[in-house]
Amino acid sequence: MQNDEIISKINQLLVDEIEIEEEKISPAADLKKDLEIDSLDFVDLFVIIERNFGVKMKAEEMADIKNLQDFYDYIIKRVHSN
Amino acid sequence: MASFKEINLPQKPPMVMVDRIVEVIDKTTITAFLVKDDNIFCEDGLLREPGLIENIAQSAAAGIAANPADAGEEPKLGFIGAIRELKISRLPKSGDEIITSVTVTHEILNARVVDGKISLKGEQIAYCELRIFLESR
Q: For the whole model, what pTM was predicted?
């Protein structure tokens, strides 16, 4: 899977599964402040990402992920390392 | 693999919705529960939907409490954060014994994602995914 496909898929999942408004999605968007992702959404994200990318996210690695670009980079790295 | 006769739950009667743990295999716990007419979630002799969900949640709690790492500890309080993919095909009636299988699919800090299935006489009658948050100690 190419990087742009991964990003597009993540964006689609955020809209469809986490119910984030499409216009709020941008690489600089802060996950908590701008996208308003709460603890329950994070749990859903773990499940959704594993189902769609086969990537088991690690909670301790999420501490450094602040914005959507960080999140894209993390998932892309994990997808390619699988 | 381990078998247990006693359960360790924070709930007290009449809210206890698990009679016994049948088996714990890795992250899967199997419990049994006899539906009685005086159950708080029974109506017209049928165990209603909230009772089925509570049964799955308590089965998960019983499995978590049965973890050897928590042996001898007071059971942690858990809170249902969300219910996903709920499917109920029929309701058990008074006198039925339901068998519930719960598997912890994800552990994310103090959150647990649990797949729960309830069977009656070998037929699956309910399924859901729960997001459970455990109290921090």
A: 0.82
